[in-house]
Design brief:
This protein is mainly alpha-helical and about 475 residues long. Helix content is about 60%, strand content about 5%. The structure holds arginine (ARG).
Length: about 475
């Protein structure tokens, strides 16, 4: 069977590329997924070419008809992609031209360099919005889980040592805040993705009177006031990929947040902690040890951050030494971008689903939170209220902890005399300091894990997310 001649080599070349070169340079194996946007861009470009008189109404009609048919075939899995035609742009255009001779006019004033930048920007716009909405759902899952166990208190840790008691919900709301910044960053980067490169040609625009504003408008590259958003420099438009880097950077940070949340779940679900129970559906067994229930979903969520950070590094490295403007190296951007979008979205979605089915072992948390040492700082604050300078109060409570340890007693079971032996300013009321509920009521600062404040934050997020 005769192979289709690569469009980009017509005329100048006596022969087609060798098979190994074709294999090495093709991108259709991964950029086919841009097809929707490639067709959309072509439809709009054709409409503009008709308006400026480059193609007739009849030619426009035939182009639209065949592009739509090709789109349907791709959608139905009936379209044959030809690797010898290199990429999604040439595959679609060649097939269009085979069906409608006017297809040969479609590339007027256009290069694959502005075309690929356009397709990627349109593809990424959708991905950014999809991911942002998935992040919202994840936040809602966290708020839901926190709300279901709103009374549960557990130890908060620094240096992986028990530090101070916090509500379980407060711990989860910390992630809600992180994911909210991820969400905001995604929406922010949308602004720079949503700028239209079409009409910038290969590097230097065109001598033809292309209507860039018209194509930008029709493709939705507009601001809130419906003003078209155009790349303002043709060289920048075809050579930079900072919109992709920015997305990959935000996604990498999101992946890092997901990884930390996953790590908390892995730790909390160990027999040693036993704070939460991950539903069986989100765990796997061991092929050898019958008793095992492994948190593989959380582990993979943690692990995927590695590849996503790697994708960002790959993109930055790809760009750093490139001379202006388009260089074929840029074809390497797509797999990294696609990989980041796919894996981060999948991770956000599965984490949201897993959290919905995670249960909390309230008694275990409560027992851990009952450790009186968690309130040592409150004890120092008590002395501060009696006029003791904080450094001295800290020292006194440290001494008390040592005394309790020596006597083999919990801190809250020291006698008043033992308290007063360390600092005479301890009064009878000191023994009441260890009541956990009142301790949580004493925390009233905005942002603190106090009873009222955590309820307020839960209510605020519920309102924001639901
Ligand atoms: N497949 C190419 C890419 O992804 C499309 C642009 C090709 N442009 C070129 N001048 N060879 O970058």
């Amino acid at each position: 069977m005769k192979k289709a001649a690569p469009v980009s080599r017509s005329g100048r070349f006596a022969a087609g590329p060798s098979a190994d070169v074709a294999r090495f340079t093709e991108s259709i194996s991964f950029d086919w997924r841009l097809w929707r946007f490639d067709i959309l861009g072509s439809l709009v470009h054709a409409t503009m070419l008709r308006k400026i008189g480059i193609i007739t109404t009849a030619e426009h009609r035939s182009i639209v008809k065949e592009l739509e048919a090709i789109g349907r075939e791709i959608h139905d899995g009936k379209f044959t992609w030809k690797p010898e035609l290199e990429d999604v742009h040439m595959n679609i255009e060649a097939e269009l031209t085979r069906r409608a001779p006017a297809g040969a006019k479609l590339h007027t004033g256009r290069s694959r360099n502005d075309q690929v930048a356009l397709d990627m920007r349109m593809w990424l716009r959708c991905e950014v919005l999809d991911l942002a909405s998935a992040v919202r759902d994840l936040q809602a899952s966290l708020v839901g889980l926190g709300g279901r166990y709103a009374d549960v208190i557990l130890p908060g840790y620094t240096h992986m040592q028990r530090a101070q008691p916090v509500y379980f919900a407060h711990h989860l709301l910390a992630y809600v805040e992180m994911f909210d910044r991820d969400y905001q960053r995604l929406l922010d980067c949308y602004q720079r993705v949503n700028v239209c490169p079409l009409g910038c040609g290969a590097i230097a625009g065109s001598t033809l009177p292309l209507d860039r504003e018209m194509t930008a408008r029709l493709l939705g590259f507009v601001d809130a006031k419906n003003r078209p958003l155009l790349c303002q420099n043709s060289m920048d438009a075809v050579s930079d990929r900072d919109f992709a880097v920015e997305f990959c950077a935000h996604a990498a940070l999101l992946a890092v947040h997901l990884s930390r949340l996953a790590e908390d779940l892995v730790l909390w679900s160990t027999s040693e902690f036993n704070f939460v129970r991950i539903s069986d559906a989100y765990t796997t067994g061991s092929s050898l040890m019958p008793q095992k229930k492994n948190p593989d979903v959380a582990e993979l969520a943690r692990g995927k951050s590695g590849r996503v950070i790697g994708n960002l590094m790959a993109l930055l490295t790809l760009l750093k030494g490139l001379p202006m403007t388009y260089n074929r190296d840029l074809q390497e951007d797509k797999e990294r971008l696609f990989d980041t979008a796919d894996h981060v979205r999948a991770t956000v979605n599965i984490m949201a689903a897993m959290l919905q089915q995670t249960t909390v072992n309230a008694e275990v948390c409560q027992a851990a939170a009952a450790d009186p040492l968690l309130l040592a700082t409150d004890l120092a604050d008590y002395l501060v209220c009696k006029g003791v300078p904080f450094r001295q109060a800290h020292h006194a409570v440290g001494t008390l902890v040592g005394v309790a340890e020596k006597l083999g007693k919990p801190l809250n079971l020291l006698s008043l005399a033992e308290f007063q032996a360390v600092d005479a300013r301890f009064g009878k009321d000191v023994l009441g300091m260890f009541e956990l509920q009142s301790a949580m009521h004493r925390k009233q600062l905005p942002g603190s894990p106090g009873s009222k404040e955590v309820r307020k934050q839960l209510a605020r997020w519920r309102k924001e997310l639901c």
